[in-house]
Design a protein that fits this description.
Length: 96
């Protein structure tokens, strides 16, 4: 397995975890009272947007060739951390 494949696999595992978290939170939102459901729906929208941004980044890296993926990896690390923190913050707000 190449370094690129290993890196993409790591990112995909994180995306799968985020998707599973979203599924759990969506189930909770469906059981919540009406006023809480609005709050949950807002946070779910944010979580899904963060996940979609991460998916786009994975697709960009996946589509790169040669050494270009190394450059994308470098610039992508910072973006990935921002997405990760944003996802964690939105998830925390969901639990409040």
């Amino acid at each position: 397995m190449s370094l690129k494949d290993e890196y993409l696999e790591k990112l995909k595992v994180q995306l799968d975890e985020w998707s599973a978290d979203i599924d759990v939170l969506e189930a909770r939102a469906k059981q919540a009272e009406a006023n809480a459901r609005v709050k949950y729906d807002q946070q779910l929208t944010i979580l899904k947007a963060k996940r979609d941004e991460a998916k786009a980044k994975v697709a960009e890296i996946h589509g790169s060739t040669g050494e270009a993926w190394q450059e994308l990896k470098k610039s992508g690390e910072e973006a990935w951390e921002v997405l990760k923190k944003g996802f964690e913050e939105a998830r925390k707000k969901f639990k409040e």
